Automatic annotation (TrEMBL):
Residues 12-328 form the Enoyl reductase (ER) domain. Its EC number is 1.-.-.-. Pfam families: ADH_N_2 (PF16884), ADH_zinc_N (PF00107). It is an enzyme of class 1 (oxidoreductase). It comes from Pedobacter alpinus. Keywords: Oxidoreductase. PANTHER family: PROSTAGLANDIN REDUCTASE (PTHR43205), PROSTAGLANDIN REDUCTASE 1 (PTHR43205:SF7). Coiled coil: none annotated. InterPro entries: ADH-like_C, ADH_N_2, ER, GroES-like_sf, MDR_fam, NAD(P)-bd_dom_sf. This is NADP-dependent oxidoreductase. The lineage of its organism: Bacteria, Pseudomonadati, Bacteroidota, Sphingobacteriia, Sphingobacteriales. It comes from the Bacteria. Gene3D superfamilies: Medium-chain alcohol dehydrogenases, catalytic domain, NAD(P)-binding Rossmann-like Domain.
């Protein structure tokens, strides 16, 4: 039974050396327990924060202990009447091929209508983040302009589509021409800027959003966000979802002072953690599932195969190797 431990706390950009593979005996389910076989593992940018020991909204991973993340698993043995052998669950589980659980905190998932991996993306944490961050904080109105950074990722690709459903002009920022094409063709983005090949991002946003920016859904922070905020409108809303461009920094970067822009334009900028909105998850999932069924939402996944590829897939998030949700299939 292979297991992946956090071996070192990464300094700056994480490397494969920060992880360690070990073998342990395959566990057996005892009274009240179930034996789970990992099928799909979610790798997410927020795991970077848990690899450091700085205080955050979730406790850090312990050194030399298994890493955990969102996972879909199959119940392969059950000593718990609530879980049938052959059924599937999602939840926060450890990076192990096999593990036992009491079932506490796990959700049963049904892979017959959508692929099981969808519960790690569009019908899981990243879909909820997109929907709740946009609707609860961004509050887009028909005809407004929504700008999304990290637009081709798991959260961003969903935010833009919801923006279109709600009648916005949607502008995205992404890191490759292939992603730019995908966002326009498959996800209905009106304009997309390749931030890596564009010299003056602020000017490009001005061109793509001639009426200014009413909602900025920020997944990346840093210079991209500075450029978007230079084009912000009066009474704009800025859900601050993530700041991946800064997660590996070892010093706090200095940017332009934003307070005058925020004051002058009466901008509402609010950070959030998706779990703040747990009470709204059922309603949000229902809405997303309906849009998915009606063909109003598409979803994209980058599926990497093999348990041994989990750490590399995580590192690849910081290189922009994924389109849509990055998932490892075991
Ligand atoms: P993504 O699927 O978007 O993957 C990360 C993407 O970020 C990459 O594909 C890459 O795309 C982009 N990226 C990587 N490095 C940089 C950089 N230096 N500058 C700009 N873009 C970069 O991940 P998620 O959708 O899971 O997460 C997106 C953001 O949302 C993250 O910041 C994450 O922490 C946050 N998040 C927050 C949650 C909350 O509750 N607040 C919950 C879930 C996610 P590209 O090729 O375009 O560079």
């Amino acid at each position: 039974n292979r297991v992946i431990l956090l071996d070192k706390r990464p300094i700056g950009t994480p490397t494969l050396n920060d992880f360690k593979f070990i073998e342990e005996e395959k566990p057996t389910a005892k009274n009240g327990e179930i034996l789970l076989k990992a099928l799909f593992v979610s790798v997410d940018p927020y795991l970077r924060g848990r690899m450091s020991d700085a205080k955050s909204y979730v406790p850090p991973f312990e050194l030399h202990k298994p890493i955990s993340s969102g996972m879909i698993a199959e119940v392969i043995a059950s000593e718990n009447a609530d879980f049938k052998v052959g059924s599937h669950v999602s939840g926060l589980l450890e990076w192990k091929e096999f593990q036992v659980s009491t079932g506490k905190g796990l959700n049963k998932v049904d892979g017959t209508k959508v692929g099981l991996s969808a519960y790690l993306g569009i019908l899981g944490m990243t879909g909820l983040t997109a929907y709740l961050g946009l609707t609860e904080i961004g509050k887009p109105k028909e005809g407004e302009t929504l700008v999304v950074s990290g637009a081709a990722g798991a959260v961003g690709s969903v935010v833009g589509q919801i923006g279109k459903v709600l009648g916005c002009r949607v502008v995205g920022l992404a890191g490759t021409d292939e992603k730019v094409e995908m966002l326009k063709k498959d996800f209905g983005y009106d304009e997309v800027i390749n931030y890596k090949t564009t010299k003056d991002i602020s000017k490009a946003i001005k061109n793509a959003a001639p009426n200014g920016v009413d909602v900025y859904f920020d997944n990346v922070g840093g210079e991209i966000s500075d450029a978007v905020l230079a084009n912000i409108n009066n009474f704009a809303r800025v859900p601050v979802c993530g700041a991946i461009s800064l997660y590996n920094d070892t010093e706090i970067a200095k940017g332009p002072r934003l307070q005058p822009i925020i004051v002058k334009n009466s901008v509402l900028m609010q950070g959030f953690i998706v779990s703040n909105y747990a009470a709204k998850f059922p309603e949000a999932i229902q809405k997303m599932a309906t849009w998915l069924k009606d063909g109003k939402l598409a979803h994209q996944e980058t599926i990497v195969e093999g348990f041994d590829q989990i750490p590399q897939a995580f590192l690849d998030l910081f290189e922009g190797k994924n389109k849509g949700k990055m998932i490892v299939k075991i």
